[in-house]
Design goal:
Elements lengths: L4 H37 L2 H20 L5 H19 L6
Helix pairs in contact: 1-2, 1-3, 2-3
């Protein structure tokens, strides 16, 4: 356990940050699963809207430093490839 006041504060900050990061990553996983489910169901409109939302959330998470920018680039590429396989075209940004 921390002894100094600054170390105690840093521990509190780390706990809050860890919870925010976990929540963000869980939400991103759920969004990716929604895109995959829409692709498997064959619903093109839902697939494109879910992918658009997922890309937006990934970009927001990267801008806040909650996930690595390379992870975001990789996931967005995977989503776009999935859309292209299912529909033949890409969603609008």
């Amino acid at each position: 356990m921390p002894h100094t006041p600054s170390a105690k504060k840093r521990l509190r900050q780390n706990i809050k940050s860890r919870m925010r990061n976990r929540n963000t990553k869980q939400n991103l996983r759920e969004l990716s699963k929604a895109v995959t489910a829409a692709a498997e169901a064959g619903d093109v409109d839902q697939l494109k809207s879910a992918a658009r939302e997922a890309e937006k959330r990934y970009d927001q998470a990267a801008s806040k430093g909650r996930v690595h920018p390379n992870l975001v680039a990789r996931k967005k590429s995977q989503l776009r490839r999935l859309i292209k396989e299912k529909t033949g075209d890409l969603p609008k940004k």
